[in-house]
Amino acid sequence: MITRGLPQTEHKPQASQATRAWRLSKTPRRSRRGTSIVATVLAVVIAIAGAVLMGTAVAAPASAAVVRIDRVDDQLSIVYVYSPSMSRVIPNQVLRPRGDGSAPVFYLLNGRAGGVEGDSWLEQTDHRLFFAGKNVTVVSPLGGPYAWYADWQRPDPALGVNKWETYLLRELPGAIAGPLRANGRNAIAGLSLSGGPALDIAGRGGSLYRAAASYSGCPAISAPPATAGVLATTSIGGGNALNMFGPPGSPAWVDHDPSRNPTRLRGKAIYLGAASGLPGRTDGAPVGAPSLLAGPAEVEMGTRWCTDQMAAALNGAGVPHTYRVFDQGAHTWSLFATEMRDSWRVIGPALGA
């Protein structure tokens, strides 16, 4: 059933960041690489915890601004940016290229919980290795669980105030441009829950983003099965998506549906990724692995349907794009990482990276 195939689950551990960090700290360090991983995760957890304290300890700037940078190592930093629209400090995981020159910025959005439950590129993939040596700054905001990276119409009793579209269009890029030596070329991408929003934000941002990608996302949220999936996914986090775009069928659902607004993406480099849902080598698992058939496989079939709608809309509007469907792959971080690496043939040249 299509409704079950929407981004409601990502195949990942369920323990909290603090719990995982504690477990890692108790694990024998058998290699230099293992020691590095432990140190990095612990440093990131401490940095994120610091952001909570900063919310009351830092005087609010008049506009969006970097309020602190915690350098974890030569590549990874946590950059804290004050968001006027949300009246709080947002931590952002940042990978910097080597050297002191300017570089383009790739905004790589995290999973359904905004990276705060461990559903982050940093914890779930080897993206640090992939971007090492590439002349690009990679920025992944932390926060906004189950908020779809949108500007919500009303505060939600469980999820609070969410103005992530504003943050990604009018706050974060300008705030980090100087401190991170951005050269003005930007791209944005998301996975699962954040895939559709990445396309929506790129389309609404004019010339700000010159490339965008969706990795197993659902960029067709106004279709009834997809709307049901959005409502169900948001409820997992205790939120109510009616506070985001109003009742199903309201104009905001259509306005934020990339498949209903394909011409907004004209002139940008666009990559769409999805898979058949059949577990296999893309997931690092045997073909048809039973552990992935219930849940991840069904979800990926649904996001494939959503992505098909997006591709058809772009084709109908005459908007060039790249769409790759992997013959094997369930809704797993291994698939998302594979799609991200494959998308670089589209994203990289657009950024000149």
Describe this structure in words.
The chain is an alpha/beta fold and 353 residues long. The chain is 38% helix and 17% strand. The protein has helices at residues 17-25, 32-57, 121-124, 127-131, 164-177, 195-204, 224-236, 242-245, 251-255, 290-293, 296-317, 333-351, and strands spanning 65-71, 76-83, 88-95, 103-108, 137-141, 182-191, 211-215, 269-275, 322-326. The protein has a nine-stranded mixed β-sheet, with helices on both faces. A hairpin with a 4-residue loop joins strand 1 (65-71) and strand 2. Helix 1 runs antiparallel to helix 2. The chain is globular and about 45 Å long. Residues 1-39 and 51-57 have low confidence and may be disordered.
**Which strand order does the major sheet show?**
1-2-3-5-4-6-7-8-9
End-to-end CA span? 41 Å
The number of helical segments is: 12
| Helix-strand category | alpha/beta
Low-confidence stretches: 1-39, 51-57
Could you estimate the helical fraction of the residues in percent?
25-40%
Order of helices and strands: HHEEEEHHEHEHEHHHEHHEH
Beta-strand residue fraction? 15-25%
Overall strand count: 9
Radius of gyration: 19 Å
What oligomeric state best describes the polypeptide chains here?
A: single chain
Largest sheet: 9 strands, mixed
